[in-house]
Amino acid sequence: NSRGTASLLKDSIPITEFSASGPFEGHDLLHRGFTSVKSELLPSHPLELTEKNFQLNQDKTNFATLRNIQGLHAPLKLQMEFRAVKQVQRLPFLHSSNMALDTLRGNDECIGFEDILNDPSQSEVMGEPHMMMEHKLGLL
């Protein structure tokens, strides 16, 4: 009986082929968010890319310095701690401050732009909590 079900699934047409494509395709706000022309444009200033990747570049420099001073184990241990802390978050529809990550990086006592005016990439996401959880778990 399970073999018959597998052959039916093999012969079925995927649902993605039924979706509209091209310039008149419907935009799914729940999964993709609002469209933004600004995000599709090239950077307007040469320093914009370095500012976007500032934290990544700073982490690489700190890891290289740590490796030269203490050896290979120190940056590897710190990277494992970063990865473990990044996995702990709130539900997808609630904002997560990632305070533990800021503490590991030493940014917990620094006041930056995102502390006062908030980071636009971490804006509030409004939506139905059940739908957002199903999307995060890959059920949709």
3D architecture notes:
With 140 residues, the chain is mainly α. It has a domain at 91-109 and 117-139. Helix content is 55%, strand content 0%. It contains nine helices and no strands. The chain has helices at residues 2-11, 29-32, 37-40, 46-52, 54-70, 73-87, 99-105, 113-117, 129-136.
Q: Largest beta sheet, briefly?
A: none
Runs in which pLDDT lies below 50 for 5 or more consecutive residues are 1-19
The Cα radius of gyration reads 22 Å
Question: What class, by secondary structure content?
Answer: mainly alpha
Question: Topology, pairings included?
Answer:
Blueprint: H1 2-11, H2 29-32, H3 37-40, H4 46-52, H5 54-70, H6 73-87, H7 99-105, H8 113-117, H9 129-136
Helix pairs in contact: 5-6
Brief synopsis:
This protein has 140 residues and is mainly α. It has helices at 2-11, 29-32, 37-40, 46-52, 54-70, 73-87, 99-105, 113-117, 129-136.
Question: What structural keywords apply?
Answer:
single chain; 140 residues; mainly alpha; 9 helices; 55% helix; 0% strand
